[in-house]
Amino acid sequence: MNRAVAGAGVTVAFLYVGRVSKLAQIMVASVRAAMPGARIVQMSDYATRQVTGVDEIIRKQWDQRLLMPFRLLHVKEFPPGDTIFLDADVVVQKDLSPLFQDDFDVALTFRDHTDPSLRGTPEAYELMPFNTGVMLSRPSGRAFWDEAHRLCLVMPDAHKAWFGDQLAIKEVAASTTLRVKQYPCALYNYSPRLRDEDISEKFVIHYKGNDRKAWMLHQWARLLPKRK
Asked: Which of 11, 81, 139, 224 has most Cβ atoms within 10 angstroms of its Cβ?
């Protein structure tokens, strides 16, 4: 695979529905800066505008209620290829495409004691060990997402609205025969504890929560598209 240009041969996809925010625009711009060769695809519904800077938007019908099975439907039906699935509230600082040199069908980012972004007891880590803000997949991983979507569909509506994807992915990762590689959130999907901490060595910064989203807007405003 040609890696002469960072991100070449890789697709970066993200789900975004609703009013287009500056956060999504910053995320797309960060991918473009760190991985200029990557193709960027927005997964969405039929009502949402295309985020500035994406190469393509894939639309599916959505009832505007239960977001988690809708996201997993997009992921399981995504066109085959080496794909990185991101949340819209992340900033990519370093090229992730070399990870595809590793041996896996699906790769997930895991929380443990090295990731201070998950507040709570060890039981909280066990309940949702994977943060779905950064996930990688090859075409050979399709069955993983099929099963995660199936499991999410039979969950209570509260889980279908939020967190259901993480719960389903945990269950599939524990039972699948596919090759699932794990990368630490502390490096590849990091949520900062402080507004001014040193995050220069992190591959992906994940601005979960309202406070962190305000930090993202302040710290990365330079990446916003210039108004004409």
From this structure: 11
In order of 71, 74, 158, 166, 179, the CA distances from 162 in angstroms are 11, 16, 6, 9, 26
- 2 in any annotated domain: no
Tell me the C-alpha distance between 128 and 75, whole Å: 19
Do the domain assignments include residue 4? no
Q: How do residues 97-127 score in pLDDT, each as one tens digit?
A: 999 999 999 999 998 766 665 555 566 677 8
Cβ proximity of 91 and 204 under 8 Å: yes
Domain assignment of residue 38, yes or no: yes
Q: Report, as ranges of residue numbers, the positions in the chain whose pLDDT lies below 70.
A: 1-3, 113-124, 227-228
Q: What pTM was computed for the model?
A: 0.94
Q: Indicate the number of domains in the chain.
A: 1
Note whether 42 and 85 are within 8 A (CB): no
User: What values do phi and psi take at 40, rounded to 5?
Assistant: -110, 125
Q: What range defines the domain where residue 62 resides?
A: 11-220
What CATH number is associated with residue 24? 3.90.550.10
Q: Backbone phi, then psi, for 39, in 5-degree steps?
A: -90, 130
CA separation for the pair 34, 41 (Å, rounded): 16
